[in-house]
Structure formats: structure tokens, C-alpha cells
Amino acid sequence: METRTSGMASRSRPHSGYVATFFRCIAMIRSPRPGSRSSDSRTAESLAGRGRMVKSPSRGRIDKRQAILDAAFTVFARRGYENACVREIAEEAGVAKPTVYHHLRDKENLFRQAIEAAADTAMAENLAVAEQLRAPGDDLRAALEDTAYRMLQVCCGERARALRWLTYAQVGGFPDLIAAVQDRTQGRLGEALADRLARLSLAGRLRPCDPALAAEQLLSLLTGPMEARTRLGTRTVPAAETRAVARAAVDTFLRAYGPAA
After folding, report:
1. Angle of helix 97-104 relative to helix 86-93, nearest 10 degrees?
2. Residue 39: which pLDDT band, with cuts at 50, 70 and 90?
């Protein structure tokens, strides 16, 4: 047994060099060259790429749904609810008619979602305007006038006018939409504006006040005259006239809420 074992060991020795060389080659292949990316990094990038590929259908679905809602609002504003048809909305969105039904179910739900999406857009535009009052600068009156003017531009824009027309015209069939639109456009804007006015009051730039009431009154000073001047959205008000309304509203507001002399 000893002789056989030693013989087997002696016969196996010539292959040991080949084995060692084989593993050295494997190590050289697996070790990254200077400036090259490791297999782990390439794998991570590959997985990340796969993750992006997995997310893209969801992203595409969201984009397509938004395109349908935008197209629906355009067609509803042009035709009215009763005369608008899903086929025309599909053509406006550049999708097939069954795709509209797949995303939004039916015409009633499509109208509701389109109105709420348009209200969200108007709200976002106004919130961005109110944001500038976080840092109004040294001239508070000028900052308030500019904010007021830009809010009126949003309020009197084509989207906002169509939003009001459609909401009021369909109040019988969609009575809850009035509250939904007002909450998105007036309610949240009032809350944001109240927050900015409260900060100004704490800083001594406005007198102590109820900021929610102050915000409500400032918005009323802006929207009230514009509703009359636009004749409920049927007349385009020139920029100079819009600025005059903004200046008058801010002047009245500061007479009530400006810091005591």
C-alpha cells in the first residue's frame, strides 16, 4: 500500500504545476486591470439598468394618463361636457380610444379627473407665486404687488377660466366638484398665503393679526374686482388694468394690516 501510494503521489506531482498555473490565470482574469471596472460594478450597473427598464412601463403609464387628462380638459373646454366625445379626446391625446377607457374607465370619471388635474395645476402655479413672499426683500409693498399681479395672471389665464366655466356649467351633474376645485385653488392657496403673512407679522413687517383672515381678505380684494372686470371670464383684461387692480388691493390691505407708524 505504501509503495502504491507513493507511486500515485509521484505520478500526480507533474500535474501540480498545471493546476497552479490554471488558478493563477483565473485570478488574473478576475482581478480588474488599472482603470477598468470590476465585474461587481458592471453587475451593479446592469442591475440598475434593469431597474430602469422595469420602471419605464410605469413611468410611461403615468405620462400617458396625464396626456389623456390634458387632452380631455382641452376638449371639454372646447366642446363642453355634453358635446365632447371620447374619440375626439383620444385623437387629441394621440392614443387609441380603448386606451382612454383603460386608464379612466368612462366619460364621467374622465371629466372628474380632468377637472381635478387642471385645478391641481392652477394650485401649483399659485403656490409657486406665493413662495416668493418667504423672502420679500426690503420693499414689502413692491413684493406684495408683484405677488398679487402674478396671482391675478393665473386666475385670469385660459386654464383657470375654462376650469370655472366647466365647473359651474356641470354643477348639477357634479355638485361635489365645486368643493374639490375650491379646495385645490382657493383653500390651499389661502393656507400658503396665511403662512407667509404670519411670518411677516412675527417679523414686525405686518401688525399682529389672524393670518388666515388676512389671507382671505387679500384674496377677496384681488378676485372680486377681477370677476367683475372680466365679466365672469368673458373679457380679457389688459395687463395695465390687472396691475392697477393688484396695486389697489395691496394698498387697501396694507392700510388694514401694515405696521403701525
Report:
1. 100
2. very low
% the chain with pLDDT above 70: 76
d(C-alpha 119, C-alpha 189), whole Å: 12
Q: For the chain, how many helices (H) and strands (E)?
A: 11, 0
- Predicted local distance difference test score (pLDDT) of residue 199: 97
Q: Is residue 81 within 8 Å of 169, Cβ to Cβ?
A: yes
Higher pLDDT, 185 or 250: 250
The burial class, CB within 10 Å (0-12 / 13-18 / 19+), for 104 is buried
- Report how far residue 119's alpha carbon sits from residue 134's, in angstroms, rounded to the nearest whole number: 24
Structural domains in the chain, sorted by start: 54-105 (1.10.10.60), 111-257 (1.10.357.10)
Predicted confidence (pLDDT) at residue 191 exceeds the cutoff of 90: yes
Is the overall model pTM greater than 0.85, yes or no? Answer: no
Neighbours of 214 (CB within 10 A): 21
DSSP string, 171-235: TTT-THHHHHHHIIIIIHHHHHHHHHHHHHHHTTSS-S--HHHHHHHHHHHHHHHHHHHTTTTTS
d(CA 55, CA 8) in angstroms, rounded, equals 60
